[in-house]
Design brief:
- The protein has 137 residues and is an alpha+beta fold.
- The protein is built from four helices and six strands; from the N terminus they run H-E-E-E-H-E-E-H-H-E.
- A six-stranded antiparallel barrel has the order 1-2-3-6-5-4.
- The longest helix has 15 residues.
- The radius of gyration is 14 Å and the shape is globular.
- It starts with a helix and ends with a strand.
Length: 137
């Protein structure tokens, strides 16, 4: 297991043992577990991510810490948008869709207001970090 995979496995376990709450660098942040099926492999994986809720809307951000490429989970959700997520103790069926401009910029700006690190991620890369909406089925 890579360092990132090992870290994610620990976060997933902590999330499930503590009704969606985790500590460490994500303490206090709203966390979601996003299930995604590999676009090439067909293997189901789970990504622990920070999310943003606006009313009934749920958004996730393909920041990958400001890397120059999108995270694998983003490509997987584009290829296989029907999936499930875990929020707290609830498991929800959702459909993922990439948020288009100008709404993408508005949502991302609101996320930066509450979690300034997302602004740092955008400044680290030349790509526009995608925002993905998870719509309940």
């Amino acid at each position: 297991m890579t360092d990132m995979a090992d870290m994610n496995a620990k976060i997933i376990t902590e999330f499930r043992e503590n009704k969606g709450k985790v500590g460490g660098m994500f303490e206090g942040a709203p966390m979601i577990l996003v299930h995604h099926v590999g676009a090439k492999s067909g293997i189901e994986r789970v990504a622990p991510l920070v999310y943003r809720a606006e009313g009934d809307r749920i958004f996730i951000f393909a920041s990958k810490g400001g890397a120059d490429e999108n995270p694998a989970w983003f490509h997987n959700l584009v290829a296989n948008p029907k999936t499930t997520v875990e929020i707290g103790e609830d498991t929800l069926e959702v459909t993922a869709s990439v948020v288009e401009q100008p709404e993408r910029d508005e949502i991302y700006a609101r996320q930066v207001e509450v979690m300034p690190g997302f602004g740092d991620y955008q400044r680290k890369t030349t790509r526009v970090i995608p925002v993905v909406e998870l719509t309940r089925v």
